[in-house]
Amino acid sequence: MKKKAFKAALPYTLPICVGFLFLGMSYGFLMRSMGFSFLYPMFMSMFIYAGSMEFVTANLLLSAFNPLSAFLLALMVNARHLFYGISMLDKYQNVGWKKFYLIYGMCDETFSVNCTTEVPEGVDQGWFMFFVTLLNQIYWVGGATAGALLGYVIHFNTKGLEFVMTALFVVMFVNQWEDTKDHVPALIGLIGSAVFNFPGRKRTTGIFGDCIYRTPSQMEKEHIAQYRRWNCILYAAGAVCLLQVTQ
Questions:
Q1: Closest Cα partner for 79 from 189, 213, 191?
Q2: Rg (CA), the chain
Q3: Is the pLDDT of residue 117 over 80?
Q4: Pairwise CA distance, residues 16 & 19, whole Å
Q5: What's the pLDDT at 13?
Q6: Tens of pLDDT along 120-144?
Q7: How confident is the prediction for the chain on average, in pLDDT?
Q8: Residue 204 scores a pLDDT above 60
Q9: In this predicted structure, what is the pLDDT of residue 220?
Q10: Which of 161, 179, 219, 228 has the lowest CB atom count within 10 Å?
Q11: CA–CA gap between residue 30 and residue 159 (Å, rounded)
Q12: Which residue, 91, 83, 77, is CA-closest to 128?
């Protein structure tokens, strides 16, 4: 039963494997370039297992200690998973102990496969979803660890490498915009984030603390630009993701 489910799940995860290895290695290189040991990206990808939040966490680890800020930022970045979980309630019934790991390991790509794929006849659905989830996490952890280890021997200019995840969100945003007729949530996200990051707007520390809303005199301009990009893309992509799930 397990072997059959594994063979059925593997082909669905191979396209994700290519993307995860590339993104994971980029993340590993980024962490190594910031001075972290390979253990950081390895364990962060293993236990956090949220690509976008892991890239953000790299900067949080170098910022002032602010647990409330980190919590609220993580909630904002990954709030869409609340709706993913609700939509998977029926599928996660009667899968036994695997349910706990399925909940823990559900990322965007895993959700997409497990939610939309018709399990082949004769294959146990619980084990199929389990192996999809497990394989995807192995790809991500392996890529992040490999990138960090290669970072010890391969040295190059990593400036702008953190934009990889932003580019991913842009692609997701465009694809979901094309597939969705109702663009109101997406427009709300775009307009809201644009207003929120308007260049002339006076900045305060606010509930998100210093990690996002410091004034230019307190943070290098390139870091401010980076956080603005994150805000804009995450608000927009999040709005479209919520629209897709709730439909």
A1: 189
A2: 19
A3: yes
A4: 5
A5: 93
A6: 888 999 999 999 999 999 999 999 9
A7: 77
A8: no
A9: 45
A10: 179
A11: 9
A12: 91
Which pair of structure tokens corresponds to residue 38? 């390979």
Q: Has residue 97 got a pLDDT over 60?
A: yes
How does residue 60 score in pLDDT terms, banded at 50, 70 and 90? confident
Q: Which residues contact 171 (CB under 8 A, 6 or more apart)?
A: none
Amino acid of residue 151: G
Instruction: Give residue 169's pLDDT.
Output: 67
Q: Which two tokens stand for residue 89?
A: 């309630």
CA angle 52, 55, 60 (to 5 degrees): 120
Q: What dihedral angle (degrees, nearest 10) is formed by the CA atoms of 53, 213, 230, 144? A: -30
Amino acid at 87: S
> Nearest CA to 183 among 116, 244, 233?
244
Residue 118 burial (10 A CB sphere; 0-12, 13-18, 19+): exposed
Which two structure tokens, joined as six digits, stand for 49? 């297992």
- CA–CA distance, 200 with 30 (Å, rounded to integer): 31
H runs (alpha helix) in the chain: 2-33, 39-47, 51-60, 67-78, 80-87, 98-104, 108-116, 125-150, 163-179, 184-196, 210-213, 221-246
- Rounded to two decimals, the pTM is 0.70
Looking at residue 120, the DSSP 8-state letter turns out to be P
Write down the residue that tokens 């939509």 correspond to. Answer: 87
Name the residue type at position 232. Answer: C
Q: How far is CA 204 from CA 8, 51, 52, in A?
A: 52, 28, 24
CB atoms under 10 Å from CB of 76, counted, come to: 15
Q: How many other CB atoms are there within 10 angstroms of residue 47's CB atom?
A: 10
